[in-house]
Amino acid sequence: MAVAWLEDVRSTDLGTVGGKAASLGELTEAGLPVPPGFVVTADTYRTFIEEAGIDEELFEAVDVDSEDSAALAAGHERAHELITGTDVPASVREEILDAYRSIGDGEAFVAVRSSATAEDLPDASFAGQQETFLNVTEDDLVERVKECWASLFSQRAIYYRNKQGFPHDEVDIAVVVQTMVDAEKSGVMFTSHPSTGDPRIIIEAAWGLGEAVVSGSVSPDNYVVDRETGEVETATIATKKLMHVKDDETGETVEREVPADKRDQRVLTDAEIERLVELGRRVEDHYGDPQDVEWAVAGGEVYMLQSRPITTIDDDAGDEADAGDEGDGDHLLTGLGASPGTASGAVRIVTKLDHLDQVSDGDVIVTEMTMPDMVPAMKRASAIVTDEGGMTSHAAIISRELGVPAIVGTGSATRVLEDGQVITVDGERGTVREGQSVAADAAPTTESAPAESGSDGPSAAPASKPTPNTATEVKVNVSIPEAAERAAATGADGVGLLRIEHLVLSLGKTPERFIRDEGADAYVTALTEGVRKVAEEFYPRSVRVRTLDAPTDEFRQLEGGDEEPHEHNPMLGYRGIRRSLDRPDAFEYELEAFKRLYEKGYENLEIMFPLVNDGTDVARAREHMAAVGIDPEKREWGVMVETPASAIGIDDIVDEGVDFVSFGTNDLTQYTLAVDRNNEHVSDRFDELHPTVLDLIGEVIESCRAADVDTSICGQAGSHPEMVDFLVRKGVTSISANIDAVGDVLETADKVERRLILESVR
Ligand code: PEP
Ligand code: MG
């Protein structure tokens, strides 16, 4: 038999039907509403290659050196050609088509998905690609099945198996053929909280077919439901711009804009949530473990499309879950959830720096806005709440790097909260509640030891490769050397932005005053040491260090700050490359520090200049680099694209010989939309995904690709799934994200890349 019906499949059939089909069979058996379908078994694939006599040539073709990308591509192409170019025996073909005709009277649109059988392989997801073809009809069915078979030899799959020494002939692939649910709405559901494991069902929902939610290309609505009582605790309604639907004429899946009246409309009714929760409970009961379920609603019915165990639950989070982190306190305040995590503690209102030593371990710092001097206290704190600031403010950036939950831009925290009051801060949702609902010892750890600094040159730290291994490099942003170890542990491909503002500001004096008082060598040494910690932690992965870019108002509080110019609008003023070119001495001392690191062997360092407007700015910066003895031809260097002028005039910038450009979307957005990035009164207008911002980015990527210049993003938006989707589709070289977002960005990039491959073979 070439096919097996889903209702006859059980988890014990894993070896012949693959993980996906086995799970669907289990769900069907448990009486859950699974769309009907069948599976073309792994034996069918195996018999096909063997009887056609292509097996040996196939395995030989993919036996290549994984590091040789040309050989990898050639192996993949040959394997694809062999499989798709060979006829399926007539008897098998008929059996597949007969099965198809018996569902939906042969008129059905079906989904065709690969279901790999080597699920015990450590990187099982690479064993067979998650190929999915939607809205397939009889005419294409057998071809699509063959393409699923061929997906076993995608470049990525070949790479991984070769790397892991896993023989190609030991991996088989089955294919699931299942009636399409022409979904009006769909999404995912976690039957328990995906990080704490507590009894909360989290549902994400968007309009149309599920691809948009699964690939992370839209921001879905988010519903949190108490699994025991069924009470909807929070319903966060997102603006849903895109949806995937079946094109009525071609039957293909297409991306459409969500009609204006549905964009901000709540996707799920109470009745649908109730039904989903009931199904979620049954699925979890059936498996005995929390599940991550894909679901869809069509014609008023809720369907289960897939279920997998949740693997992200943190076992240590149990205390937090037991503490029931909400429900027993009122919302005192809301703001922007700037750094995820939930923590309780006593409020410590900090108005002056000399109050900092009153912050004890586990207190919640409440302040207008954090400053560099506060970092030691921020490390002790269980959470941070500020009156001012947006997602890219100092408080937000540093809290994320320290892993301390934070809420910014509450407008009134220092007035509404009282010293000593015990509160619970939810840094994901941006809410402050009265009372303690997280056990004190469950507070997130904030310790992160700096890199060992005993040695003088780089040591070959193992650079663990992140999984999934995306073609788009995924890097991480670092602003404080203390976060280097945490950042490196993400497995990111390197540091896409190392800010040195914090390093300089924490010297307590403006650069000019510091140099005057303590000497240039002390300044160079301080910078060298700070940057070295990060370069060391990541070696040999690249670290892109940026020259100083702090607005004058951030220098004012420091010694020497009274000598800073008074500006009406520091964001439009004397900052970035403007200040550096105007104060070449201090600028060259920064460059001198980087040169010392090159001399110590940290050739993984790359240099980036901020806030350039045009080719002239770039040429002048390059001259200073050459003047201190850093050869621009030998070292990797580039600039930030963060003003509309630099984006529109990108060709002139490229002509100056940059190796890369990196989008500073925090600034690019504020300058393009004229929205102060730190002003909470207009934070609802700060839209990094604004079509004009995206147009500028898209054009720059295109020009840079034509000129063979790498592109990257290091603004906050690089951590946003919709931006990742956009950039990967445009062909960006790398994405640099916040520490806590690296994993999600990798996953989104991976899904988008796979979808692109899928689209390219259509
Ligand atoms: C940006 O502008 O997006 C950026 C990364 O630089 P900064 O946030 O340091 O201005
Ligand atoms: Mg910037």
> Could you say how many structural domains there are in total?
5
Task: Give the distance, in angstroms, between the N- and C-terminal Cα atoms.
Answer: 29 Å
Strand order, main sheet: write it out: 14-21-20-16-17-18-19-15
Q: Please give the largest β-sheet.
A: 8 strands, mixed
Query: Mean pLDDT, nearest integer?
Result: 86
Number of helices, where a helix is a run of at least 4 consecutive DSSP H or I residues = 28
CATH architecture group name of the largest domain? 2-Layer Sandwich
Shape: globular
Query: Which structural class do the helices and strands define?
Result: alpha/beta
What is the rounded Rg?
Answer: 28 Å
Ranges where pLDDT stays below 50 over 5 or more residues in a row are 119-129, 312-329, 443-455, 460-466
- Indicate the multimeric state: single chain
The CATH homologous superfamily of the largest domain: ATP-grasp fold, A domain
Total beta strand runs: 29
Set down the secondary structure blueprint.
Blueprint: E1 3-5, H1 14-29, E2 37-40, H2 42-51, H3 55-61, H4 69-84, H5 90-101, E3 110-116, E4 132-136, H6 138-150, H7 155-164, E5 173-179, E6 185-190, E7 200-207, H8 211-214, E8 221-226, E9 232-236, E10 242-246, E11 253-257, H9 260-263, H10 270-287, E12 291-298, E13 301-309, H11 318-322, E14 331-334, E15 336-339, E16 342-350, E17 364-367, H12 375-380, E18 383-386, H13 394-402, E19 406-408, H14 413-416, E20 422-426, E21 431-434, E22 473-478, H15 484-488, E23 494-498, H16 501-505, H17 511-518, H18 520-538, E24 542-546, H19 552-556, H20 576-582, H21 584-599, E25 605-609, H22 615-627, E26 637-641, H23 644-648, H24 650-654, E27 660-663, H25 665-673, H26 691-706, E28 710-713, H27 721-730, E29 734-737, H28 742-761
Parallel strand pairs: 16-17, 17-18, 18-19, 22-23, 22-29, 23-24, 24-25, 25-26, 26-27, 27-28
Antiparallel strand pairs: 1-2, 2-5, 3-4, 3-5, 6-7, 6-12, 7-8, 8-9, 10-11, 12-13, 14-21, 15-19, 16-20, 20-21
